[in-house]
Amino acid sequence: MNKPVILIKNKIHTIRGVQVMLDSDLAELYGVSTKRLKEQVKRNTERFPENFMFKLTKDEKSEVVAFCDHLNNLKYSYVLPLVFTEPGVSMLSAVLKSKKAVEISIKIITAFVEMRQFLIKNAYVFQEFQRINQKLITHDEQLEQVFKAMDDKELPRQGIFFNGQVFDAFVFISNLIKSAQARIVLIDNYVDENTLQLFADKNSEVSIKIYTSNLNKKLLLAAEKFGQQHGGIVIIKFEDSHDRFIIIDNEVYHIGASLKDLGKKWFAFSRLGLAPEVFLSKIPDESWRN
Question: pLDDT (tens digit, 9 = 90+) per residue, 230-249?
Answer without folding.
Answer: 877 889 888 888 889 999 98
